[in-house]
Amino acid sequence: MWLFRFLLLLGIAFPAYPQDWPNKTVKFVSPYPPGGSVDPLARLLAAKLTDSLKQQFIVENRTGASGIIGTDYVAKSAPDGYTWCFIFDTHSVHQALNPKLPFDPIKDFAPVMIVGTAPMAVTTAASKPYKTFADVVAAAKAKPDTLGIGNVGNGSLGHLASILLNQAAGIKLVAIPYKGGGPLSTDVMGGQIDFAMASTAAQASHVKSGKMRALALTGEKRSHTMPEVPTLAELGYKWEPAYAFWGILAPAGTPKPIIDKLAAAARDAVHSPATAARLQHDGVDIGGSTPEAFAALIAKEIVQWRELAQSARITLD
User: Fold this and answer.
1) Residues 241-298 pLDDT 10s
2) β-bridge partners, 29
3) Quick check: is 42 in a domain?
4) In this structure, are 58 and 203 located in the same domain?
5) CATH number, domain containing residue 63
6) Domain total in the chain
7) What confidence score (pLDDT) does residue 11 get?
8) What is the pLDDT of residues 288-307, one digit of tens each?
9) What CATH number is associated with residue 130?
């Protein structure tokens, strides 16, 4: 007993245990600004976890550098179960294009769960003249290097997919980075940029409202959210399916019982009828994986995108 009290006096922290966790406010760090797909999904899940685990879950936006700033903050946070990162697919794409990351996407994190997945969509403003993807190709070939296609930042999946789109279609759209899905969608709808390459989850509401037009999808099959929109493969292009994904990471060293407890609660949350309906309405295919399955996906994606970036000689320059 005296040793325990002595260590407490020294300020040595003891790891939380699942029966005690959570006993104070829990923080989800969203590395992207409000208005895109990451922030609303994080807030939806935080609200459900607040109800089920009887402790406050809050979302804190730490934005910048295509998600690197917020993700790095979590990597360097205490592994006590009170700071988590709500990530986007950019987490696995970063290493393909940015070898100087301040964190290791695998070693510095403990995967928790895939919340959901979605294909990317090529979209334009409803006011623009492009009715089909063939119109995009024709315009881009007529005016090479003049039409812009936005993404949520250099090193994002949208960035990489846009460059691969140029190669597949034999066109030269200019990839333009934004600080998040919100600013990107605003400029597309306003006509300040010609096209966007972003997830169906980030753009579904704008397409349904009639402010945007979706022209092609990057998935293996058509999306339940945009069933009228063809895939690039369906249009005859040589195309490897590309999907956005959202998930939860913990700092490396977070006790596994706590990770398993959050994973179980989050899995129940995304499969609850109301949340599942909301996710599907917003263009997200429901996840709910185990921590081990999420770890395998991240490792696979890093290899896949690194190989594609190297073979296509894609860099951030």
Assistant:
1) 889 999 999 999 999 999 999 999 999 999 999 999 988 888 898 888 889 999 999 9
2) 60, 85
3) yes
4) no
5) 3.40.190.150
6) 2
7) 43
8) 888 999 999 999 888 888 88
9) 3.40.190.10
Assess if residue 28 is contained within a domain.
yes
Whether cis (ω within 30° of 0) applies to the bond prior to 22 is yes
114, 199: one domain: no
- What is the pLDDT, as a whole number, of residue 7? 44
Q: Is 6 helix (H, G, I), strand (E, B) or coil?
A: helix
pLDDT at position 15 is 52
Q: Using the structure block, give the residue that is written with the tokens 């009228």.
A: 228
What are 81's two structure tokens? 């179960």
CA atoms within 13 A on the CB side of 293: 11
Q: CA–CA separation, 37 vs 245, rounded Å?
A: 10
Q: Which domain holds residue 165?
A: 119-217
Q: Which of 113, 115, 110 is nearest to 45 (CA)?
A: 115
**Are residues 135 and 186 both part of a single domain?**
yes
pLDDT digits (tens, 9 = 90+) for 130-144: 999 999 999 999 999
CB-CB contact of 266 with 248 (8 Å) = yes
SS3 63: coil
Residue 93 φ/ψ, nearest 5 degrees: -80, -30
Q: Is 4 a domain residue?
A: no
One-letter amino acid of 202 = A
One-letter amino acid of 281: H
Determine the residue type at 236: G
Say if 232 falls within a structural domain: no
State whether 248 and 111 are in the same domain.
Answer: yes
Phi then psi dihedrals of residue 27, to 5 deg: -115, 125
Using alpha carbons only, give the angle 307, 310, 314 rounded to the nearest 5 degrees: 120
Residue-wise burial string across 230-253, b where 16 or more C-beta atoms lie within 10 A, e elsewhere:
bbbbebebebeebbbbbbbbbbee
Domain stops at, among 180, 199, 217: 217
**CA–CA separation, 224 vs 295, rounded Å?**
27
Contact 92, 289 (CB under 8 A): no
Largest CA distance in the chain: 80
